[in-house]
Amino acid sequence: MQKNTVVAMPGDGIGNIVLPEAIRVLDAVGFRPEYVHADIGWEFWVNEGNPLPDKTIELLKKHKLGLFGAITSKPKNKAAEEIRPELRDKGYVYFSPIVGMRQKFNLDVCIRPCRSFPGNPLNFIRQTADGGFEEPKVDAVIFRQNTEGLYCGLEWTDPPPAVRDAFSGHPKYKPFADVAGEDMAVSVRMFTRRACRRIMEAAFGYAKKHGYPSVTVCEKPNVLRETSGMLEEEARHVHEDYPDIELWSTNIDAQMMWLTKNPEDYGVVVAGNLFGDIISDAFAGLVGGLGFACSGNIGDEVAVFEPTHGSAPKYAELDPPIVNPIAMILSAAMLLDHVGESEKATRVRDAVAAVVKEGKVRPYDMMKIPGGPDAISKGAASTIQTTDAIIAKLAG
Ligand code: NAI
Ligand code: MG
Asked: Quick check: CB of 252 below 6 Å from ligand 1?
């Protein structure tokens, strides 16, 4: 079998802490690809005016498989202030390198599994009618369209005349017609039929393969008739090939309420880019939050796996590091699935499950104590101790 090469992109802040931990776990489970390091993140914006250097793009193009930690990104003005003085006013404009990577390689299918591990004190619990508590089993897998929608990047403050002209033909534009350019901001929610079809095919294919009884499209078709409407139309179309799976439709706002009332009812959930971002964080909150939230960004050729958390700068310099490596480790398990190493992926998830269930080794978030330099002295496991415990379970 040809040896895989994985492009390792730790990025900023705690990305540099958690990514090496995931590699240790991959190594322990017997997956030993070549790793090539690639640069990404704030430092490369500041020093080169490009947070996603061309060399990184070339490496991904070549090796097609990436593990990514996290990046720091800052608002437009802050980005312009922090760029190296020599690069100032040279036309560099900050963009999110993750969004850039997703669009560059058309990583249009984002998968975010949110499964509760029994014994996790961060799991969602619900009060019962008799005053007791119950812990519903959450096993939702969010499919988020990753390249279009409100994150497609088509936006303006002071839209150019051609854009305003195009709007002026629309009856709903009337109240905006006299708004001054600098007082008007526009972000376009663009959906294409092709991308809607692809995310629905991916979602139904996953549901069938993994035995989920339903696929829920979570949008807002009663208001966003065109865009949400197109996704729903494609859902119905793809559903024809999967008669054994139920197709449900919910509105994003109502879904945000229902997911804390009856999260166990949902299996595969599909949404556009923004709603998918929101609903996946919401489900992640039920199963342990950012320390547990893993994801894969999958295109036809390239796939990149990453925890959904960011660079958590306030914890990046702590020694020993305290952040939870599990989100990154579960992302690495998704990489294993992607390359056909499902048995190893299952072993990694089982090892995580065993550590969580045993409850002896818990990073600060699972202890429900504030993160900070004294978290360890209060009994929290360090990042490294947490990984060590997972590796020990792999061996045992
Ligand atoms: P964040 O996800 O970095 O951290 C928020 C809080 O969540 C942290 O302060 C910490 O309390 C907790 N947390 C995050 N990861 C954790 C882990 N592995 N274990 C335990 N606790 C964890 O989000 P924040 O603070 O809003 O953003 C910080 C930077 O990260 C910003 O520059 C933001 O733009 C960027 N960001 C990058 C993302 C990415 O690279 N995919 C995603 C989200 C934010
Ligand atoms: Mg998010």
From this structure: no
DSSP state of 211: T
What are the Cα distances from residue 81, in Å, to 45, 72, 96? 11, 15, 16
The protein residue with its alpha carbon nearest to ligand 1, atom 1, reads 310
pLDDT truncated to tens, each residue of the chain (396 aa)? Answer: 568 999 999 999 999 999 999 999 999 999 999 999 999 999 999 999 999 999 999 999 999 999 999 999 998 889 999 999 999 989 999 999 998 999 899 999 999 999 999 999 999 999 999 999 999 999 999 999 999 999 998 999 999 999 999 999 999 999 999 999 999 999 999 999 999 999 999 999 999 999 999 999 999 999 999 999 999 999 999 999 999 999 999 999 999 999 989 999 999 999 999 999 999 999 999 999 999 999 999 999 999 999 999 999 999 999 999 999 999 999 999 999 999 999 999 999 999 999 999 999 999 999 999 999 999 999 999 999 999 999 999 997
CATH superfamily assigned to domain 1-108+295-396: Isopropylmalate Dehydrogenase (3.40.718.10)
CA 99 to chain centre: 11
CATH topology of domain 124-152+189-286: Isopropylmalate Dehydrogenase (3.40.718)
- Separation between Cα atoms, residue 67 and residue 296, nearest integer Å: 9
Residue (of 51, 71, 103) closest to 273 by Cα position: 103
Taking the centre of ligand 2 as the mean of its atom positions, its distance from the CA of residue 280, in whole angstroms, is 8
Q: What residues does each domain of the chain span? A: 1-108+295-396, 124-152+189-286, 154-187
Q: Which among 290, 305, 322 is the best mutation to test ligand 1's pocket, defined by most ligand atoms within 8 Å of the CB? A: 290
Residue with tokens 């990436």: 66
Residues 23, 50 contacting (CB under 8 angstroms): no
- Check if 291 has its Cβ closer than 6 Å to any atom of ligand 1: yes
288 touches ligand 1 (CB under 6 Å): no
